[in-house]
What does this fold into?
Amino acid sequence: MKRILSLMLVVLLVAALFVGCSKSDLVGTYKIDMDSMIEASKEESDEFKDKSNEEIKDLLKQAGISEDSFGLEIKDDGKFTMEFAGDKEEGTWKLDGSTLTLTVDNDPLECDYEDGKITMEVGSGTTLIFIKK
It folds into this structure.
């Protein structure tokens, strides 16, 4: 009986360690990955399919969108700040497996967190991909 209890305790500690590591790995400052975002947009939209990444980057720059206009900071206190073209949003975050939920004003947005990348679907087929700085 002691052996079973000891084994269960070890399994619980190892599971807690993995959960803790994934959350601490998530905490940090992220920037937009323009190339990945453009490739995802090409797959989802006929409008961009035949354009080169550089052509699309130029179009985005004309609209005021660049790598410097996006930012995301995941804080260890369960809060986050996201910046887009000078506008800031603040809220809370929760990680459950590979699902990262960002909540602003009781409005949750589910994102994928995998291999140090945060992928979120916003609006009409727009995919934003953030990578850690």
